[in-house]
Design goal:
single chain; three-stranded antiparallel beta sheet; 13 helices; binds pyridoxal-5'-phosphate; alpha/beta
């Protein structure tokens, strides 16, 4: 009976995407906590702080007003204007509000971008290590992710030269860049991003720039592709800098001639983004000072880890430029970071994410630490890891 049902409603081949290992780490951490253990959580990439109080107050007011309705598919006009103004204020770049599309987190932005730019079978370059859903969403939509290895010489970022080398082997239709990046926390300089965008455009390769960690840069300012070209699809979110992961709201800046296509797709796929989240997002921009204070907390955490982890025994990591991630090479301790992460969780009660989630090629050498927690937790983590590695 069950077999017959399985045959009748077997899942499609394209829905066969791998799980996110970090979820398994979270379950293991929850078991330890249920048994009375205290875990320092550095596995999940999300801020510990709430949304700006301005955002929460605006959502409350909108809720009290009663009716919560659909909005235009592209988003509430005043929010689109506010996002456009953010580009002028932050990067000195005028952006036409008509090019702004409000999305259900950047996650929905990827789906809209990939559907708009690519046909099934198209090849899209992404850096490895990288954020796993890039490749999983591409695969689910019938596109082929092309993993390009990065290394220290380029701050673990894609370069124009690497892109062209891959393109000449088998033609690419698109490239997705991210700076600051997840899991590495590394960033591209403005010059490196400019070189990549120019190279891609000259070769007819479409550019998508994931700028979700903008605002969280500690060594030099993050550059937006919006300053370089009108042809790139820029994806951003309120999840990270504005601490609004659960509100599920983000945005895109798209080439003018793609707006109507994306609008039609969005009308059909989602109708609109939840209106309470849109109201809250617009007000979030008024909470800048609060969010800067949160960012200063990450800066302190970063300093604690940069000073403490080498003393604890973890002294090999990628440049810790932005976002809130530190990507540490643990290959001198063991040849499987999944096992390393499991043992560190069970024995030291520090939860991290094994690199295999982010890099099928070399991920077994790395673990990712998220430093979006409290200062106290960072000190605790350094001490526990040090004691554990010295055992
Ligand atoms: C690099 C990167 N892009 C996109 C996302 C998706 O975020 P959201 O859908 O909450 O905007 C994440 C989430 O962790 C991320 O790390």
């Amino acid at each position: 009976m069950l077999d017959a049902a399985r045959r009748l409603v077997s899942p499609s081949a394209r829905s066969d995407v791998p799980p996110f290992m970090v979820m398994d780490v979270m379950s293991a951490a929850a078991r330890i906590e249920a048994a009375g253990g205290q875990v320092v959580h550095m596995e999940v990439g999300q801020p510990a702080a709430p949304a700006p109080s301005t955002a929460i107050a605006a959502a409350r007011k909108a809720l009290d007003a009663g009716r919560v309705s659909y909005t235009e598919a592209l988003g509430i006009r005043s929010l689109r204007r506010r996002i456009a103004a953010h580009y002028a204020a932050t990067y000195g770049q005028a952006v036409d509000p008509e090019r702004v599309v409000v999305t259900t987190g950047s996650s929905a932005g990827f789906i809209l971008a990939f559907l708009t730019l690519f046909e099934p079978g198209d090849r899209v370059a992404i850096a490895t290590p990288g954020y796993p859903p890039y490749r999983h969403i591409l695969t689910a939509l019938g596109c082929e992710p092309v993993l390009i290895e990065t290394d220290a010489a380029t701050r673990f970022a894609l370069t124009g030269a690497a892109l062209i080398a891959a393109h000449s082997r088998t033609p690419l239709k698109g490239v997705l860049v991210a700076s600051p990046a997840n899991p590495t926390g590394t960033m591209m300089t403005g010059e490196a991003l400019g070189d990549l965008v120019d190279t891609a455009e000259d070769a007819g390769i479409r550019v998508i720039s994931d700028e979700i960690y903008h605002g969280l840069d500690y060594t030099f300012a993050a550059a937006t592709a919006a300053r370089l070209t009108d042809n790139a699809v820029i994806i951003n979110s309120f999840s990270k800098y504005f601490c609004m992961t659960g509100w599920r709201i983000g945005w895109m800046v798209v080439p003018p001639h793609l707006v109507r296509t994306i609008e039609r797709l969005h009308q059909n796929l989602a109708i609109s983004v939840p209106s309470l989240s849109q109201v809250a997002a617009e007000a979030a921009f008024e909470g800048h000072a609060e969010m800067q204070a949160v960012k200063h907390g990450y800066e302190d955490n970063r300093r604690i880890l940069l000073a403490g982890l080498p003393q604890a025994g973890l002294d090999k990591f990628l440049p810790v430029d932005g976002a809130f991630y530190l990507y540490a090479d643990v290959s001198h301790f063991c040849d499987d970071s999944l096992d390393f992460a499991k043992r560190m969780l069970e024995q030291a009660h520090v939860a991290s994410t094994p690199g295999i989630d982010f890099d099928p090629l070399h991920g077994r050498r790395f673990v990712r630490f998220c430093y979006a927690g409290s200062r106290q937790e960072m000190h605790e983590a350094v001490e526990r890891i040090g004691n554990w590695l010295k055992r």
